[in-house]
Amino acid sequence: MKTALWVAHVHVTDAEAYGKYAALATGAITDHGGVFLARGGAYETLEGPDRPRNVVARFPSMQAAHDCYYSDAYQAALSHAKGAAQRELSIIEEL
């Protein structure tokens, strides 16, 4: 079974609310087998909109990544991110 990545590009507009999201999302992600490969840190935007927070998490499968996003725990976390950030999030199957 191929693993999958969550790739998120984020511009935080409300650090306090987004901090609540990040704290809750961490548990939901790890509960679904997710492992963080990048979370913040140095970056260089070469194309597209600049999003200073970049996160990559590996999941055991596309299904696990999908299930995590739609889980009650992640959706509860996500409620804190709405209005607190501009985000793009994709699930990508690894080779």
Automatic annotation (TrEMBL):
One Pfam assignment: DUF1330
Signal peptide from the UniProt entry: none
Every DUF1330 domain range: 3-94
Organism superkingdom: Bacteria
SUPFAM superfamilies associated with the record: Dimeric alpha+beta barrel
PANTHER family named in the record: BLR0684 PROTEIN (PTHR41521:SF4), PTHR41521
Protein's UniProt name: Uncharacterized conserved protein, DUF1330 family
Biological source species: Loktanella atrilutea
